[in-house]
Amino acid sequence: MQLTLPSGFGPDSAAILNEFKRKHPHVRFLRFQWQDYSGVLRGRVMLIDTVIAQIAKGTPLKATGLAICCSVTNNLAPFTPLDGQYWLVPNWPTLHSTASKTNASVMCALDYTLPGSPASRDFCPRHVLNKVLDQARAGWGLDFLVGFEVEFVVMKLNQETGIIDRCSEGWGLFSISGLRDPVYHYVEECVMKLEQLGVDIQAIHTEGQRGQYEFALGPKPPMEAVDQLVLVHSYLKDIFAQNGYIVTMMPKPVASESLATGQHTHLSLQPPRPDLEESFLAGILQRLPELCSFCLPQDISYQRLLPFIGGCDSVCWGTEARKSPIRKIEPSRWEIRNIDAMSNMYLTLGAIIGAGLCGLAGHEPLLWPDIMDPANQDVSFGEPLPKDVKTAISILEQDQFGLADVLGRPILDRYVAMKQFELSKLSELDTEKVRQLFIELF
Question: pTM to 2 decimals?
Fold first, then answer.
């Protein structure tokens, strides 16, 4: 089958890789990476010289027909194509060395082809985020900045029990004693290496318990912000793994403890638009129950949600309201709190921003009052948010408020199908086995 070379393979691609080889002579392998619908980072590894040779021949690089068809339980979904193929579309600005001296990585989008049909970008989360951002620019002249709070817990495999458990005991919550933990120097090692790669880490502190930490990442445009997030997660996991530990960002790693891990996400309109912010926020709030299917993609995600800690369980917002799912920080800037690191953040950001664009397109009024305004202290909260992912997926499938008009029906239907299939497979597993699987994957 003949295929036009994907857009990631322009005439400068070989030059970019040759220059990278010159600066990093020890790198022999290149990881082409993408995130699937379950938020799992997947990839294909090639020798960097082989990649350069294929580009010189004008040969596109295959991902696999299974690229985003595998559930978190490692089962192929019913919609897995028998004759379709996904192709790698690398974003070369994300080309970086990894924690392994012989490896580099690059984040990719995915083009999809069927024999006799043109390439499609409808199923790729990265392409869909780009599509939503293009709509925002074309329709309203809007860009965005996104900043993530990276929370993680350091854990260790108990060789006797085979259980992954916390490696430290004691206080967190900004305590300096938590910085005296023996594992903390690996945190500093990661920060220094990430700084060399251009990652903007603005602050570090101990989180709820000893061995739990948070990085505040500086704001970037949405695509760059998610690429940076993936890089930070990978470096943390790789550096600690090299030293016998496991870093996890999953929301509830120990069932018997209050320890919880989120991924609060800061989103601002660029430039700030007081004339648009109410309808943009209204669009998100109107669709918040279905957005939970992206932001909180597993049942274990909902175990984290408690008032104050993770965001309340109703549709609402408030100025500096840490007990609400959406906290307004300043004009045209919000923090999304009901979200965790099991999400595919390309797709999740696309859905959140897309919901805001729906609000703009419909001139939707902001019907939900600021819960922090004393004048609203007796006003009831909005409708309850879903208590589990099955309910959230059912609301998304109905799509009462037209989110598919922005994201595209193909990816919404594909995502719903994957989550429904995944739920059926997870239901066959022991609850603690699922928790251990998620600790390792996320």
Answer: 0.94
